[in-house]
Amino acid sequence: MTRPEKLSRMMVSRNAKTGIRVRNSRFKKRRSRFTRRQGLLIILMMLFFMGSGISYVWSNFEKTQIGYDLSQLKKEEMRLQEINRKLRLELALLKSPQNLQSKAVKDLGLRQPTPEQIVMLP
Amino acid sequence: MKVKEKKWIRFRIYVVTTFFLLGFGVILARAYQLQVIERDYLRGIAENGIIGTTKLPPERGTIYDREGNELAISVQVGSVFAHPKQIKEKSKTARQLSRILGEKKTRILKLLRRDRSFVWIKRKISPTLTQQVSDLKIGGIGVTTETRRYYPGREIAAHLIGFSGADNQGLEGLEKRYDDSLKGPQHRLIRMRDALGRSFSINRTDPSGRGMHHLLLTIDKEIQYKAQQALKIAVKKTRARGGHCIVVNPETGEILAMAVVPEFNPNAFSKYRPDQWRNRIVTDCFEPGSTLKAFLLSAALEESVVTPLSQFDCEEGEYKVGGRVVHDTHKYGKLSVSDIIVHSSNIGAIKIGQKLGYARFCSYLKKFGFSSKTGIGLLGERKGFIRKPEKARTIDRATLFFGQGMTATSLQLTMAMAAIANGGKLMRPYVVKKIVDESGGLVEETHPKVVRRVISTRTAMRVAEILEGVVGSEGTAPKAAIRGFRVAGKTGTSQKVDPKTKRYSKSKYVAIFVGFAPVERPKLVILALVDEPKGVAYGGLVAGPVFKDVGSWSLNHLKVNPQPDLLTVAEAKAKALVSDTPKDSGNSARLEEVNKIAGELRQGLLPDFRGMGMREVLKRGRALGLKVSLKGSGLAVKQKPEAGSPLNAVNRVSVSFNPPG
Questions:
Q1: Dihedral angle at the C-alpha atoms of B191, B194, B196, B198, nearest 10 degrees?
Q2: Contact residues for B573 (Cβ-Cβ < 8 A; gap 6+)
């Protein structure tokens, strides 16, 4: 007789002395249950893994979002830099000596000072 | 039961296996479909996600003057192009474009009808116009961004800066010389769209490992402008062919201005002839003429072959040497060495030179930097020429002493004079002060460099004192004198060689004045050269006023204090006293003031400044040649030394002010 057969016969057979049918399978099941502590640990670990999974996904999402924002801002920066350059050019044109001289002489009626008119502050 | 159970288990295994196999099969099939069957189609979709790759317009560094004013700057502009083969309704397209671009329809239509795959419709226009064109969304018409170089100062320092071409390449001047530094790396912008349709871009820099740099020049925009203006006026007035003007700081060798007339506008350089682009200050050689006598004097004094008081016979204006007769403009008998320089006697110069010796003079000229490049690092710089002693005939040996038979550039002549101004030390000239990167970090800096000591400080000072006489009333250039400053310099009028006859022309001259101010501590060395003036061609008369204009303006701009000579002030006041007879009551107050100052001067006593305002104190103090230091604000309450102290013992007076009331 093979071992499993023997075992199954034992499981279904009644106890020779007491005549009570032994249901070993139920006891086995009971034995495989976790203790409360283990249960708690498992829940905690599951929470931890879930949490880290969610935070990983979230950070990835944030990263993409920031990437988009960054590329938008880069574009904006380039635009503003270009405007800045154009304004600097305009300022340089307005500040050019030719322009200033014609404004000073023609519009404001200013003229070059003579040496006596120049007072240098010490 | 047992068999039944076994079958059940087996059945379940089959179910699960089939399930997995099927699933795996589906995945494989899908992978095959995506990777093999639909490969090209999907690639097309993916590439559609990339909206486009744009080559960003190449950037170019800015060129600044010493104060940080922009002299050359690049900005983005738009350009419109077409693929004529892709355009169906050419006439309609041309009409639409002509309306926006303001070009003739026929011109555009002609371009569109050309048998080419690509044509530019209009380049370098305002980006708003290109936006309007791209809004039309015509197939075959595209817009792109390019950069355009602007020179906001227009003609200012144009010959020095040069210009860059349509494709961002330096073509002339510093733009060409420093092209590698100014040119930025090529950026490529890859614009993409993600699954949700949001666009984003990736900036890729072509790996050249080179950044864009900006140049900071030693040029002072204001002085440069003044130099160009003054020179332009002189050239126009004398109907000359052109002119040069250089302003140099003798202590450092920094070039503050480098003006060439006729000018050109680098914003529209193609409208000018190429020979007008040339920076003639370094590329053109001429005979320095009598200006060379300043260096003859330096060499002769340094070698102690003469003293300023040594006498030479100037042969009444005619001297036979090497079979030729040398003339002076005025006839002189015996003259001292300093008078020979002040009156610019050629015969006197020959006599000093003969004492010094040709070879020795040549070696001094070489030490002063003639016949070798100055090291300024500009393109096309020439060396000039001095005849070697062994090849010089007797007449060559004589004429060199007054500047004939050799050639030099304006820059060489200026730097040689700067060596005298700088106590005998020859400096290397430079125009680029700094090269900085995009974030302003220093890449390269040029420091002042002494090339060599040519003459001793003592000799330099003695030469400067003698050269001061040139701008005096007796000298050849009284018109170069600057009021309020001691000026030294030398005139030169040299004949040009006629290219046809190969002889000295009788009508073509070069008028030069090169000098420095203030003599006691030179801040500026200025050369003014007028090429082929019509009519009177003397250096002192033609170029002298340019020196004076540029010098007085620049010294004021650099805040160098004028020091009016006590005597001249007193003279002026005394004259004012005599001429200012009280014609009307408005004049009487002024007369009273003049009276007062003249009185103080006569007495030689320090006036009482108490009760005066700051401006008044400074004005009066300066009129008396005093250094005034001020304390506080309001009206003068206290002065040190006290009023009435003898003037000749005082050179500084400190005045305290308090607000009135």
A1: -20
A2: B594, B597, B598, B601, B623
| ipTM for the complex shown | 0.71
Residue B102 has pLDDT above 70, yes or no: yes
User: H helices of B137-289, where?
Assistant: 158-161, 173-177, 179-182, 221-237, 274-277, 280-283
Q: How far is A102 from chain B (nearest CA, A)?
A: 13
Q: What is the pLDDT of residue B50?
A: 67
List the structure tokens of B10.
């087996």
Rounded Cα distance between B345 and A86, Å, is 57
Secondary structure element (H or E) that encloses residue B593, with its range:
helix B585-603
Do B398 and B322 form a contact (C-beta atoms < 8 A)?
yes
Strand B324-327 and strand B285-286: the pairing is unpaired
Q: How far is the C-alpha of B546 from the C-alpha of B513, rounded, in Å? A: 9
Distance of CA B30 to the CA centre of its chain: 71
Task: Please tell me the distance from the alpha carbon of residue B218 to that of residue B66, in angstroms, as a whole number.
Answer: 5
> Model confidence over A32-67: pLDDT tens digits?
678 889 999 999 999 999 999 999 999 999 998 898
Contact yes or no for B237/B272 (Cβ under 8 A) = no
What's the CA gap between B150 and B126, in Å, rounded?
13
User: Are B119 and B86 spatial neighbours (Cβ–Cβ below 8 Å)?
Assistant: no
Helices (H), B442-543: 457-468, 539-542
| Phi, psi for B298 (deg, rounded to 5) | -60, -45
Query: Pick from B283, B271, B270, B290: which is nearest to B242 by CA?
Result: B283
User: Cα separations (Å) of B271 from A93, B264, B268?
Assistant: 21, 9, 6
B290 part of the active site:
yes
User: Can you give the length of chain A in residues?
Assistant: 122
Q: Which of A88, A92, A120 sits opposite B561 (nearest CB)?
A: A120
- Residues on A contacting B at a C-beta cutoff of 8 Å: 67-68, 71-72, 74-75, 82, 85-86, 88-89, 92-93, 95-98, 112-113, 115-116, 118-122
A and B: number of Cβ contacts within 8 A: 68
Q: What is the DSSP string of B376-435?
A: ---TT----B---GGG--HHHHHHGGGT-S-BEEHHHHHHHHHHHHTTTEEEPPBSEEEE
> Measured between CB atoms, which of B73, B221, B225 is closest to A88?
B73
Rounded distance, CA B515 to CA B551, Å? Answer: 10
Pairing of strands B50-55, B450-453: unpaired
**B527: CB partners within 8 A, 6+ apart:** B244, B245, B246, B410, B413, B414, B417, B512, B513, B514
Per cent of chain B over pLDDT 90 is: 51
pLDDT digits (tens, 9 = 90+) for B632-661: 888 888 888 888 788 777 778 888 888 886
Residue B579 class from Cβ within 10 Å (0-12 exposed, 13-18 middle, 19+ buried)? exposed
Sign of CA dihedral B41, B43, B45, B51: negative
Alpha-carbon dihedral sign for residues A14, A15, A21, A25: negative
Q: Measure the CA–CA gap between B254 and B427, rounded to whole angstroms.
A: 9
